Amino acid sequence: MKNIELLAPAKDIESGMAAINYGADAVYIGAPKFGARAAVGNSLEDVKKLCEYAHLFYAKVYVTLNTILYDHELKEVEQLIHQLYEIGVDAIIIQDMGILEMDLPPIPLFASTQTNNYTWQKAKFLEDAGIQRIILARELSLDQIQEIKSKTNVDLEFFIHGALCVSLSGQCYFSHAIHKGSANRGACAQACRSYYTLKDEEGKTLVKNKHLLSLKDLNLTDHINELLDAGITSFKIEGRLKDVAYVKNITSHYRKHIDLALKTRKDFKKQSSGNVYSDFNPDPERTYNRGYTNYFIHGRTDKIASADTPKSIGKEIGRVKSIGSNYFKIESSLTLHNGDGICFFDDSSVLQGFNVNKVDNTKIYIDKIQDLKPGTIIYRNYDHQFNKQLSNSKTERKISVAIEINETEQGISIQAKDSDNIEITWNYYKQKEEAKNAELAISNIEKQFSKGGDSIFKVEELAMIIKTPLFFPISELNELRRKTFELLEKERIKAFKRIEFKTEKTSHHFPDEFIDYKGNVLNQKAVDFYKRHGVKVIENAFEVQTNFESKEIMTTRHCIKFQMGACKRFAENPKEIKEPLFLEDNNRRYKLDFDCKNCFMKVILI
Asked: What pLDDT band is residue 427 in, cutting at 50, 70 and 90?
């Protein structure tokens, strides 16, 4: 049986522990430095605590070291990887191939999506280089994933939810070109979320001030089984910048749907231990989202962009029915509440938002009533009650355990066995005192040993083989239960075995003999790596170049021509436009180059 993993993001230790509690089989988190989200680094002490907690459930912790590195940083990174191994981290997510030239501990290396894992040839190369998992490009279709799986034996990870980078991962230089903050160095300025004006060859404005590079968020809830069939074994949620409410809601949602899929699949099983006992119904639309798309999972589709706004629109509530002096009424089966944040698109398709001050039966009181009109669609982008419910949630993750209590000559023997067949037996010696009320004595033992309390265990079976009902004070029973769980937890920790893998240097051929700046080679170790693998010419990384003129600063499968209905390949009656096309912001101009044969759009700095 193959292990199937739900992989959740961790901004910090609080989010990481929430991810485990709400059903994640693994979490990915940033170290103090060198992660692709520089704003959310974590101390080694916190990462260690998260590892210890996750391992109780046989869940795993992966650390992101997925930036490209300068030469002067290599020694520090090598030392950091050794430290991460020592504190119990299960794998390192990397982008820079210079790391494979280091003297590393036996820790598995995963190839970040930043390594541009788009073809089976690249995936096969990385597998042969010792990479234990490949995080695939988000733009891949099911057919492309299946092709990669058919040519490799490596573990495959795929994003199933969250914000989408419009550029091919690792191939975006937009931020560095205009802000000097490199996405490949963890400092993306999110230029894709800005607004642009689209002009044709003659300078005619085709679209004015729209977020033309901003995409909706990914949601592959309905494609779990297809992805399993295609060969995905790790299902990844995006969101290392998201808050703990997002982690709770989205992790719970996918835990539920993956478990449903696994029920019908005899060839797969959940990677970690324990069951989640939730006290709320997860709903992705009630958490931060820009609207959802399944992206390219079945090839090119329309409506993947969020051109009107890069902000969260949340869940559609209904249409405005009528408007009063400072309130409106809405046609909806859903209920708004005091403190909700709601929004709508005005006549200019600009997102307007405000808070609900008061709900009085059918009347919803707000401050900016003048912008609303009957028929306007209302969205709720902040659900006050749902967020309060998430904040107060008592959701727990518990490991099933069976307990058997046997009477011995000198007291009792307690045996506990959990759902992973981890087992302990210990003897408790005490002077026997027959209970005056036999029925109450048995009931007290059953009641106290059936409690899981604040432990990680849930008692599913309890058997007692006692000839003579013995008297135990309640406090003594509680202490016996506590010690039983403590011993079992220690045995679980002892039984947990990290997968270890020592990466050896290889010399098989890289798919290309020339690497341009999009290979992101920033240090000498990376140069040595590629040269040993047959690369003849290696261009310096974008981050150390000085002239960006005429450079591709973004490559994307999102196509503005397609979005406009001007694509001659897909549109039945394509709109005529005069190319080349240009994007303009307040300060700069960018040329759009359309590689229609391979279905890519490229943004060129001019």
From this structure: very high
Q: Which CATH architecture has domain 2-191+208-280?
A: Alpha-Beta Barrel (3.20)
Closest CA to 290 of 370, 193, 223: 193
Tell the burial category of 375 from Cβ atoms under 10 Å away from its Cβ (0-12, 13-18, 19+). exposed
Please state whether the predicted TM-score (pTM) of the whole model is above 0.85: yes
Strand partners, 360: 363
The three-class DSSP label of residue 70 is: coil
- The per-residue pLDDT for range 26-35, each reduced to its tens digit, is 999 999 999 8
Tell me the C-alpha distance between 110 and 58, whole Å.
19
Smallest CA-to-CA distance from 253 within 296, 224, 216, 291 is with: 224
CATH class of 313-391: mainly beta
Q: 67 CB contacts (<8 Å, ≥6 apart)?
A: 34, 35, 36, 38, 95, 96, 184, 185, 186
Q: How confident is the model at residue 457 (pLDDT cuts 50, 70, 90)?
A: very high
Query: Which residue ranges make up each domain of the chain?
Result: 2-191+208-280, 313-391, 397-495, 514-605
Decide if 377 contacts 344 (C-beta within 8 A): yes
* Residue 345: predicted pLDDT: 95
In one-letter notation, the amino acid at residue 473 is P
Written as one letter, the residue type at 459 is V
